[in-house]
C-alpha cells in the first residue's frame, strides 16, 4: 500500500526517504522487522486472551513423554502468524503484482479453512474438526485459482537465457547492458516450463506430456500444469499440517524453507543473477522477497512463543496456511519439482503416515495381525514413542522432544543448502 502510494505521488511530491521504497532490499528488511515485532506484540496479547477464554488444545493420551503436560495450551495461534504476515505485506509490497496477490489470497484462504477446523475442534468439542473432504475441496479450489491466474495474467511470464550455441524457433533476443555486461535472453514468453534439478538444460515443459500438436498441445500442457499445481498445494499444506506435532517443529522448518524461497525469488527476479546461474529469469518475482521476508519474520515472532515448552500452538489455522504459502511460492518460482528436497521433512512425514497405514492393512489381511513399520506416525513421534513393536527399532531409547526438534531443524538446513546448490549442480 505504501509502495503503491509513494509510486503514485512520486511526480507530485518528494521528501527525504521516499525513494527508499523503490528498493526491494529496504522493503524486505522493513517487512521482516515489522512482522517480527507484530508477532511478538500480538502473540503476547492473543495468548493472554486465548488462555483467559480457555481455548486450549485437547490432547489425546498416546503414551508419549511429556504429552499430557501440554493439555490446555492455547491453540489457534496461527492467527498470530497471519496477522504478522498480512499487515507488512499489505503495507510494503506492490499490491498490483500478481505474485504478491496470490500469496495473500493463499494465506487468507487456507487460514480461513484452518480456522474453521480449529473452531469446530475447540468450541464445538468435536475432535475430528472440519471433514477432510471439505479441506481437500478448499485446497483444490485454491490450486485452480493459482493455476488460472498464472495462465491468464500478463505478468506471469519467463525469459530463458540464450546459451552459447543454442538454437531454436525463438529468434528474438532481449539484451540488457548492466555493469558493463551484455545479458541476453530469449523473448518474454508465457509457458508451462519448470525447473528440473540436476539436469544441464534444466527446463521441463509440461506440454511435452500432452498429446496433439499446436494449440491443442499447448492447452493440454496448461491443463496438466494446473493439475500439478493442485496436487502440490494439497500435498504440501497437508504435509505441513502433519508435521505440526511438536513445539517449534513446523515453525522452525518453515522459516528455513521461507529463507530459501526468498533467496530463489531474489535470484530468479534479478536479471544479473539469473544470467550468471543460467536459470529462468522470471520478471516481477523479486517482489516476492518482500512478502517472504514478512513470512519469515512472522514465523520467527511466533517461534518466540511456540518454542519448547510452547505457550501456544498454531493449529490448522497456521499449518495449512504455511504449507499453502510455501507451495504457491515454489510454483510461481518454477521450483515445484524441488519441493521433495526443500520440504524433505514434510515429504517424509507424509510418506511415513502412508507407509504405516498401508503396511498395517496389508499385514493384517495377509497375516491376520497388523504390523507397524514405525512405532508411531507422523515420523517425529516414532523417535518419541516407547514400548511399541515396529520393524524399525532405532532409536533404542526415546529421545527428548527438544532434541528431536533441533535435529529436524538441522536436517532442514542441510536440505535448504542442498536445494540452493542444485542451481549449479547439473
Descriptive overview:
The protein is 58% helix and 4% strand. Helix 4 packs antiparallel against helix 10 and helix 6 packs across helix 12. The chain starts with a helix and ends in a 5-residue tail after the last helix. It has 14 helices and four strands. The radius of gyration is 23 Å and the shape is globular. Strand 3 and strand 4 form a beta hairpin. It has one domain. It is mostly helical.
The overall pLDDT, averaged over residues, is: 88
Total strands: 4
Main sheet record: 2 strands, antiparallel
Q: Which structural class do you get from the secondary structure elements?
A: mainly alpha
Q: How do the helices and strands follow one another from N- to C-terminus?
A: HHHHHEEEEHHHHHHHHH
What is the domain total for the residues?
1
The portion of residues assigned to helices is: 55-70%
What are the segments in which pLDDT stays under 50 over at least 5 consecutive residues? 164-180
Assembly state: single chain
Radius of gyration: 23 Å
Overall geometric form: globular
What keyword list fits this structure?
426 residues; mainly alpha; globular
Please write out the topology.
Layout: H1 2-8, H2 24-52, H3 78-92, H4 98-123, H5 132-152, E1 173-178, E2 181-186, E3 193-195, E4 203-205, H6 214-243, H7 249-268, H8 271-277, H9 288-306, H10 315-332, H11 339-342, H12 344-367, H13 379-382, H14 401-421
Antiparallel strand pairs: 1-2, 3-4
Helix pairs in contact: 2-3, 2-9, 3-4, 3-9, 3-10, 4-5, 4-10, 5-6, 6-10, 6-12, 7-9, 7-10, 7-14
Amino acid at each position: 500500500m505504501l509502495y503503491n502510494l509513494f509510486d503514485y505521488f512520486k511526480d507530485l511530491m518528494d521528501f527525504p526517504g521516499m525513494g527508499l521504497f523503490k528498493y526491494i532490499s529496504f522493503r524486505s528488511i522493513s517487512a521482516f522487522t515489522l512482522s517480527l515485532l507484530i508477532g511478538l506484540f500480538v502473540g503476547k496479547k492473543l495468548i493472554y486472551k486465548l488462555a483467559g477464554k480457555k481455548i486450549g488444545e485437547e490432547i489425546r493420551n498416546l503414551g508419549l513423554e511429556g504429552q499430557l503436560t501440554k493439555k490446555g495450551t492455547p491453540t489457534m495461534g496461527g492467527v498470530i502468524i497471519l496477522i504478522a504476515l498480512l499487515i507488512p505485506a499489505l503495507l510494503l509490497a506492490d499490491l498490483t503484482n500478481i505474485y504478491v496477490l496470490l500469496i495473500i489470497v493463499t494465506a487468507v484462504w487456507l487460514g480461513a479453512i484452518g480456522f474453521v477446523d480449529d473452531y469446530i475442534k475447540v468450541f464445538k468439542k468435536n475432535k475430528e474438526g472440519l471433514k477432510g473432504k471439505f479441506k481437500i475441496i478448499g485446497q483444490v479450489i485454491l490450486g485452480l485459482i493459482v493455476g488460472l491466474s498464472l495462465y491468464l495474467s500478463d505478468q506471469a511470464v519467463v525469459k530463458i537465457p540464450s546459451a552459447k550455441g543454442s538454437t531454436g524457433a525463438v529468434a528474438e533476443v532481449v539484451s540488457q547492458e548492466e555493469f558493463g555486461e551484455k545479458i541476453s535472453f530469449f523473448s518474454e514468453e508465457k509457458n508451462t516450463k519448470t525447473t528440473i534439478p540436476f539436469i544441464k538444460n534444466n527446463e521441463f515443459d509440461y506440454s511435452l506430456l500432452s498429446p496433439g500438436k499446436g494449440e491443442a498441445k499447448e492447452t493440454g500442457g496448461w491443463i496438466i500444469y494446473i493439475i500439478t499445481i493442485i496436487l502440490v498445494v494439497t500435498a504440501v499444506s497437508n504435509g505441513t499440517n502433519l508435521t505440526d506435532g511438536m513445539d517449534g517443529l513446523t515453525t522452525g522448518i518453515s522459516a528455513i524453507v521461507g529463507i530459501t524461497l526468498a533467496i530463489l525469488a531474489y535470484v530468479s527476479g534479478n536479471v544479473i543473477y539469473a544470467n550468471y546461474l543460467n536459470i529462468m529469469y522470471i520478471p516481477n518475482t523479486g517482489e516476492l522477497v518482500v512478502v517472504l521476508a514478512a513470512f519469515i519474520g512472522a514465523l520467527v515472532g511466533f517461534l518466540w512463543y511456540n518454542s519448547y515448552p510452547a505457550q501456544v500452538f498454531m493449529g490448522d489455522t497456521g499449518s495449512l496456511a504455511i504449507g499453502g504459502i510455501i507451495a504457491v511460492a515454489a510454483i510461481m518460482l518454477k521450483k515445484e519439482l524441488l519441493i521433495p528436497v526443500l520440504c524433505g521433512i514434510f515429504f517424509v512425514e507424509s510418506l511415513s503416515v502412508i507407509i504405516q497405514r498401508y503396511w498395517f492393512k496389508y499385514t493384517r489381511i495377509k497375516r491376520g495381525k497388523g504390523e507397524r513399520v514405525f512405532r508411531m506416525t507422523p515420523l517425529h513421534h516414532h523417535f518419541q514413542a516407547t514400548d511399541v513393536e515396529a520393524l524399525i527399532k532405532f532409536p533404542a531409547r526415546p529421545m527428548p522432544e527438544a532434541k528431536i526438534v533441533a535435529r529436524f531443524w538441522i536436517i532442514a538446513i542441510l536440505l535448504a543448502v542442498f536445494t540452493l546448490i542444485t542451481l549449479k549442480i547439473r
